[in-house]
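Pasting as-is:
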Amino acid sequence: MILWKPGDRSPRKNRRAGWTIPAAAAVKANGRRWRLQTQAPTLGFSGGKNVKRKILSIFLALLIAATLPVNILASGEGLAALAKLLDASPEKLLKSSALIPGDSLSDWVAVLAGRSGKTGSAEAYLSRLWDYVSQQYEEAGGLDSIQATPWHRTALTVMALGADPTCFGRNPQGQPIDLIADGTYAWDTTSSLGTQGLNSWIFALITLDAGGYSVPEDAAYTREEILAAILEAQEPDGGFGLTAGASDVDITAMALQALAPYPDRCGREIDQALGYLSNAQTIRGDFANFGETSAESCAQVMIALCALEIDPRTDDRFVKAGGSVLDGLLLYRTDTGAFCHSLEDEANLLATVQANLALCALERMDAGKTRLYDFTDISLQTYTPEQGVLLYGICAAGILLAVGFVIFWVRKGRNSCTK
């Protein structure tokens, strides 16, 4: 099992990730969209036929909802389980002392928090991540000496938290750092953007498209060249691997996430990759990768399918006798709401993060929102740590002013009572 997250120097064994679906969730069946309501519908008794039609419609909707392979979980339960693993609350997830900005797993937690709307403590994380990026450029000349994916992951994290990655951190000359350029089209840290392996090409394209960034005409790597490098790596069986010669479920799913914005350009390659993943799915709905099944593989496939607007609960290619992709993922959900890497393991952070990212992708697809890694729905703002200090200063001044008024009126009230 190849570890999915950008930032790894070499293939490693996976660990795994988690999910919830809101109490009122949209689900699809037979090409139609149904919404499960938490409040019972009101019937209007204007006529016998109308009443019968309404009752029949409600019955059919409930029947379809009951038969769909969807587990409706309490809203926020997955994030609550994740927060518990980090000894934090969902609202203050990004303030957890267990998170280290710049660390791969910590950054993916931040991406999940951003995409789940839990950005109340984003300033704390962004401030520390800004310091980390600036320090790495000062001490090492960049985020890594070989891998490009640390730039990609960091840029995705910054975007998920609402900041602009094209001017995040300061280099030794005091100039803003462009994480997008340095990690993709202007890459010059090694002789090739693909030195790390196929995942660097994949996440370079994901990162460029995440913010809809254009590539200069004189760039070292054009968007077309990056796309071509991914397509050229497709194996005869339709899959993709970290290195040539061996397809991998996780890498294939990530490649599909990168190819999702290009259905017209890459339709044949996408279909072949989907065929490979369908063949790799087990009878119970999860996926076997080099003989091992895991929550992470399920999560990556679900993110890919949602990016392609393919329903992982109902698409015939991904519903086996024992269940769908979603059913397969939920096999790894523990009683606490967190997820485990394999069915024999206890819950762990990586499995819980990846599974929740997948469920977030599903929720976004149902709601008609942008793809999980498409941040064009966010108005990205230039960030500097001073902004946070200024904001806190203004808030503190406002609080002090309010307290002063309260004390003034209380004293005034007392004085008028003693007269």
